[in-house]
Structures are given as structure tokens and as C-alpha cells.
Q: What sequence folds into this?
């Protein structure tokens, strides 16, 4: 059965609610389908602010599906729960080809990041067609490879503002892709856990030195999967600080960020169940 994001049951607590991993804040949520240039149907969800204008749009690219990555990977799920209400940000999540989640299964099969180029293009085009403004790619692990490989070239480059990378392994993305990003001049923010399994901050700073505009932010204590509310919250703060007009561009050091999202919500809330 496909999960229906309109099925959340909201109630009004008598006092402000501490925002936890399962806290869902109000938003307009809908199941969506993306169509790729080679005919695949990708399933996803779009979460929009309930009121006010959309200040930015996140097009999320999930971790490796052969190792448990999907559109519901926890940082992206929390982004969709919180950011429409807390920051006026639209969040588009989707399963790349062959990937399954409670939302459903996208057609096709995993193609090692090659065929997934058309998945990235389909997601960006969907956001364009829906009139979603200030569009940013957000890649996590395998998703960073897709962002680096395809975000700085046509047709995607002309439709996005930049990209934010979470735990980039730099396995598939090459120096040629980094050079392409350098030439684009588009912002590239790179969040690297201190204890990452694949690429740690010092090595990341060296690799990304090929992109003059890239900002590598090492996050003390974090691991590749950003487990724990402390680290998931840090990622969301860094994303918001980068994409919102007037943000600081994430110039803080390893222990700070220019944005601090509220940790309580005074309004209707729902609870997500695994």
C-alpha cells in the first residue's frame, strides 16, 4: 500500500511541543510522480508551506539504494516534516529508479549513477514545471555523486542555484566533475562528518580545493549517516542558512552555524510512525 502523506492526524497541544525525530509540522503534502526521459516513473512526495510564499526549494538526492538509501532516509524525512513550516521551504523527495520506500517503488533498476542522470533531470524539471523557486540540489552520500556529476551541466545547471552535499564519498564523481562545478561558479556547500567512513574533513578540503567557491564544513563528532537529533538538526540548520535569501552562506566554523531553527512549535502537530 502506498503511504498517503495527507493521512497525518494533527492536534493542537495545550503548550508548545518540543520538536523530536517523529514530530510532523503542518504543510501541504502530496504524492507526486516524475517521468524520466527514458520512460521511467519515479515516485515521490512534495511538501509545501501551508501559508506564505515559498522561499526556497530543496530537490533531494538520497543515499545509495543498494545499501538502504531511499527518499525516507532520516535527514530528508525530517526536512519534509519541519522545513515547510519552520522556514518556508519546499521539499521534494523521490526514489531514484528501482528504489522502494513506503511511498512506493520507482520503475527501472539501479544503474550505478549513470541512468540516474535522467532521474535528476526529471526532478529538476518537475520543480520548474511546478513553479517552485530558488531551487537547490541536496545530495547525501550517493546523492552527492549525482549532484556533482550532473548538477553543473545542462540541462540541470541553468535551473538550479547551487548544491549542498552531505557526506560526499567522491567515489563516482571525478576531478573533471569538480572542474565543471568550478567553471559554473555556482555555490557548493559540503558538510563532512569528522568520523566519516569514506572522506573526512581534511581530505575533503583538499579534494574540493579544485572548486574555488566550495565551502567545506567539518562537523565535529558526526558520522556518515548523521545519526542523532544533534547532527540531523545541524544539517537542517546548515541547509536553511545556505538556501534562504539573506542567509550567512554557512560561514560558521565546525561547531556553529548562522541559522538556528526553532526547537519548539506552538501549533498543530502530528506524530509519524515508522
A:
Amino acid at each position: 500500500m502506498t503511504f498517503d502523506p495527507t493521512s497525518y492526524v494533527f492536534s493542537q497541544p495545550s503548550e508548545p511541543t518540543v520538536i523530536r525525530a517523529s514530530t510532523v509540522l503542518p504543510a501541504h503534502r502530496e504524492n507526486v510522480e516524475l517521468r524520466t526521459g527514458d520512460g521511467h516513473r519515479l515516485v515521490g512526495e512534495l511538501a509545501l508551506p501551508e501559508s506564505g510564499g515559498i522561499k526556497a526549494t530543496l530537490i533531494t538526492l538520497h543515499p545509495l539504494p543498494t545499501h538502504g538509501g531511499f527518499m525516507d532516509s532520516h535527514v530528508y524525512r525530517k526536512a519534509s516534516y519541519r522545513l515547510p513550516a519552520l522556514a518556508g521551504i519546499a521539499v521534494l523527495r523521490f526514489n531514484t529508479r528501482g528504489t522502494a520506500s513506503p511511498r512506493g517503488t520507482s520503475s527501472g533498476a539501479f544503474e550505478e549513477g549513470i541512468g540516474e542522470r535522467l532521474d535528476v533531470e526529471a526532478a529538476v524539471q518537475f520543480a520548474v514545471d511546478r513553479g517552485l523557486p530558488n531551487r537547490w540540489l541536496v545530495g547525501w552520500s550517493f546523492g552527492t555523486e549525482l549532484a556533482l556529476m550532473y548538477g553543473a551541466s545542462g540541462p540541470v545547471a541553468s535551473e538550479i542555484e547551487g548544491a549542498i552535499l552531505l557526506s560526499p564519498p567522491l567515489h563516482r564523481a571525478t576531478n573533471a566533475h569538480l572542474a565543471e562545478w568550478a567553471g559554473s561558479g555556482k555555490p557548493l556547500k559540503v558538510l563532512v562528518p569528522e568520523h566519516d567512513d569514506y572522506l573526512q574533513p581534511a581530505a575533503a578540503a583538499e579534494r574540493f580545493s579544485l572548486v574555488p567557491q566550495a565551502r567545506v564544513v567539518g562537523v565535529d563528532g558526526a558520522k556518515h549517516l548523521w545519526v542523532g537529533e544533534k547532527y540531523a538538526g545541524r544539517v537542517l540548520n546548515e541547509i536553511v542558512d545556505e538556501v534562504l535569501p539573506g542567509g550567512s552562506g554557512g560561514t560558521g566554523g565546525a561547531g556553529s552555524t548562522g541559522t538556528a531553527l526553532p526547537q519548539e512549535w506552538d501549533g498543530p502537530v502530528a506524530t509519524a510512525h515508522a
